[in-house]
Write a structure and sequence with these properties.
Elements lengths: L2 H10 L7 H7 L17 H6 L2 H13 L8 H18 L18 H9 L1 H21 L8 H17 L9 H15 L7 H16 L7 H13 L4 E4 L2 E4 L5
Antiparallel strand pairs: 1-2
């Protein structure tokens, strides 16, 4: 796993001389034995400091490590916890994170619990959301809030997320991916201030996106399929405070 250290140096300027296995055992203490950030958990302070770009970088680092995919789920989580903590410690300032488009607020309590319980999945989830946001902004000039663009973003996000969370190689399992994606998407909608019709719309479009994943598709294919769902009126938007079918308008 020495590749992770080279990548960390490139991304964060962190010098690491020991192996990943020794580092995993020793990260909780420095050379003097003083206690540092735990290598087995994530604090709210760490989570609140992570931006969507940080999650994307963490995903890129783990994806570039050939041995990461062969780790057990528990070891992948420990790997990501250490990585998130390193990112946090490398910051010269603290920022407040935003994970989906500007219409969304910071992580709610349900999402924070998921980040703590499934740190490896978190990098995939927010990488998928970042990709969905970028593609939505590229494809839609209008309807980014409660319109066709909003519907596409949620649909594509869930399709991409379900694919990422389905596993690697021969272990790819669409059913598991959908289950995992639903957990994260449902948690995101646990917002007491969100209007009921917007939650209804979002949950509907999230489900449409997950339904696309019945086998391994490329991101390009997932985008096309999500766009086709929106164009065909299979997704939902809001017009005059009513949840209605989407259209081809962009």
């Amino acid at each position: 796993m020495k590749k992770i250290f080279l990548t960390l140096v490139l991304f964060f300027g962190i010098s690491v001389s020991s192996s990943i296995h020794a580092y995993a055992d020793d990260i909780a203490t420095d050379e003097s034995g003083a206690e540092q950030i735990s290598n087995e958990s994530l604090s709210d302070e760490v989570i609140d400091s992570l931006t969507i770009d940080d999650f994307v970088k963490a995903y890129e680092i783990s994806s570039s490590d050939e041995e990461f995919k062969d780790l057990s789920e528990d070891d992948q989580n420990l790997y990501m916890i250490k990585l998130y903590n390193e990112i946090y410690e490398s910051k010269s300032y603290r920022v407040t994170a935003r994970y989906l488009p500007s219409a969304y607020e910071n992580l709610n309590s349900a999402e924070k619990k998921l980040v703590k319980s499934y740190p490896a999945q978190a990098a995939q989830v927010y990488t998928a959301s970042s990709l969905a946001t970028k593609r939505t902004n590229a494809l839609y000039k209008n309807g980014l809030h409660n319109g066709n663009g909003d519907a596409f973003r949620h649909t594509y996000w869930n399709a991409e997320m379900a694919t990422m969370l389905a596993g690697y190689g021969s272990s790819f399992n669409p059913s598991n991916g959908k289950t995992n994606a639903k957990r994260w998407a449902d948690a995101h909608e646990e917002n007491k201030n969100q209007p009921a019709n917007e939650k209804q719309m979002d949950l509907f479009n999230n489900n449409v996106g997950r339904s696309i994943v019945n086998k391994k598709y490329s991101s390009k294919d997932l985008e096309k399929k999500a766009l086709a769902k929106v164009d065909a009126g299979s997704c939902r938007r809001i017009v005059n405070n009513k949840v209605v079918a989407t259209t081809k308008a962009r």
